[in-house]
Amino acid sequence: MTTKQDTTVVVGRGFIWITLAKLYFMVTGAVLMLALPRLFGSADLFGEFATVNSLIRIVNMVMITATLQAVAKLTSEREETAGAVRRAAVRAQLLIGGVIFVALFVGADLIAGRWLHDARLAPYLRVAAFIPLFYSFYAVMVGLLNGLKRFLHQASLDMTFSTLKTASIIGLVVLGYKVWGAFAAFAASAGVVLAISLVFTRSIGTESPSDKELQKRLWAFMLPIMAYTLFYNLLLNQDLLLIKSLKYAPMLDYFSRKAEGRVLLELHFGYLGLDPHHFPALADHAATAATSVLSGLFGAMKTISNLPYQAVISVTFVVFPVISQATFQQETSQTERYVQNTFRFSYLVIMFMLAVLLPVCNELIVILYGEAYRAGSSALQLLLVSTVLFSLFVICTTIITSAGFPRTTLALGVVTAVVNFVLCWILINNSGLWTGSLLYAAWADTITMALGAILGVVAIFKLLRCLPPLFSFLRITAATAICFICGNFLHVGSKWLIIAKCGALAVVYLLILVATRELTNADADIIRRVLRRRAS
Question: Please, are residues 399 and 342 in contact by the beta-carbon 8 Å criterion?
């Protein structure tokens, strides 16, 4: 029985499998995001992809996070009800996924033309509408596997999907289908992995009878998480969408009314012999292209800055059913231990990423994306700090949700998303015409994420009487600061020397933690136990 196993080993093995899957996701995602700017051939096409992708990501994550957590929560509490949970969740997704699909497909022209000021995005939105439809049912199957602690199967599905998505998107873009092809491949991959997940879960709980009370509990747990996830993903993605939307009017005014902007139009289009009366249409075209370029630059910076978050996202999948079970069984001491260990390990990982990336981020941009993307480098350091704070916020809300307080999670999500929206609106509108808006958006993100992390820690203390390990946080922060200072003194130029610099910073970080006894033999012992084939 699972309750008789060594929990550290079970969680550790699960973490290894899901971390491997997430590392694979990071690698394939990096390949994809490195390849697309070059394959598209221009920052504005990449900006179009990044804009639609940000919008679809919000909807996708609402589908998959809320459904996965609700299904995992109910399944982990009583594993014998897995079949009934699945049937209830599938019925729910027929409604929710169907409504979202229709809204995106039918409303594509309104979203693209009226809100994002770029009618060219509408066909991409229609193709991308199939992605959340498939995701809504896929999340049910993954939630079952997570709740039953079948982490290997969950990881296998993640890796399969990452492979299909990356290969098919690159393939269709190379064949000349550009942005449309990228989203068609994404949708097809989601459909295929849904079919595979149905095979993986076909025998789970087939004998479980239907439970009407379970249906009510599912909705009661899922709806607050959906609302929270909506605000949480607005917090993560609305900055890029607001750059695309808010900078259109200033760009249009610049190209249609400012002398410098009209000269640029004449230089760009004059050789075609176009009549000056065509300037309004040309100004609109130039403004749309300019906002797409800004979106492309900011999207590239966010891809790099999200690496610390991707490094710890697997923690949320593994810790969710464990804390859920501990709080359900009212095991206070175990809950406190799990919470502190989760905070400590997560902070170790995200600050390791920050220690390595922060001193080399400017050189990294040119290596990964080319010289054309250096214009967005001013925002990257701030975005990296923002991502660390956001990662802590996500860990906090995952702990709170798994402990059975989804309404608190919703309140945190609403507050931080609204604050971020207001700050982005004010700062982007008051920024410069060009890349200054990227830096201002990064400041809005950093301030908001700091607020969210603080509120999350306060909420955990009030609800569970647990706090993060303060002295561990101080030692880890000091190690990161020392790495940043050392990295700024060590200037290198070639790609290989930059890689060597990253390796040296990683070693310095680990040595400091060993010297301060943040990393001890106890940590090594846990790793050895996790890696054994059987619990001792």
Answer: yes
Alpha helix positions (H), 306-331: 307-328
Using one digit for the tens of pLDDT, what is the confidence trace for 79-119? 777 788 888 888 889 898 889 999 999 999 999 988 998 88
pTM recorded for the entire structure: 0.79
Q: Is 42 exposed, middle or buried, given 0-12, 13-18 or 19+ CB atoms closer than 10 A?
A: middle
Structure-derived torsion over alpha carbons of residues 179, 184, 186, 191, reported in degrees to the nearest 10? 170
Residue type, 109: D
**Alpha-carbon gap, residue 164 to 188, rounded angstroms:** 9
Q: The dihedral of CA 303, 308, 313, 316: what is its sign? A: negative
The CA-CA-CA angle for residues 334, 340, 344, to 5°, reads 145
Separation of alpha carbons 456 and 408, rounded Å: 9
Residues 6+ apart with CB under 8 A from 466: 335, 336, 339, 340, 460
In order of 101, 292, 315, 431, 532, the CA distances from 434 in angstroms are 35, 12, 38, 8, 55
Cα torsion 159, 163, 166, 172: sign: negative
Minimum mean pLDDT among 1-5, 429-433, 442-446: which range? Answer: 1-5
Count H helices, E strands: the chain?
Answer: 21, 0
- Here the tokens at position 246 are 């808010």
Distance CA(534)–CA(511), nearest Å, equals 31
**Exposed/middle/buried for residue 235 (C-beta within 10 Å: 0-12, 13-18, 19+):** buried
d(CA 416, CA 72): 26
Task: Tell which residue, 70, 85, 75, has the closest CA to residue 149.
Answer: 75
Contact between residue 295 and residue 50 where contact means Cβ atoms under 8 Å apart: yes
**Cα 193 to the center of its chain, rounded Å:** 20
CA distances from 321 to 148, 151, 157, 456 (A): 8, 11, 18, 19
Tokens 């700091």 belong to residue: 450
Task: Give the count of beta carbons closer than 10 Å to the beta carbon of residue 224.
Answer: 21
Which residues, 6 or more positions from 76, have their beta carbon under 8 angstroms from its beta carbon?
Answer: 146, 147, 148, 149, 321, 324, 325
In 403-418, which positions are buried (b, 16+ CB within 10 angstroms) versus exposed (e)?
bbbbebbbbbbbbbbe
User: For residues 187 and 124, what is the distance between their CA atoms, to the nearest angstrom?
Assistant: 11
- The whole-angstrom separation of Cα 232 and Cα 410 is 9
Over the stretch 361-381, which tens digit does the pLDDT of each residue have? 878 888 878 788 887 777 898
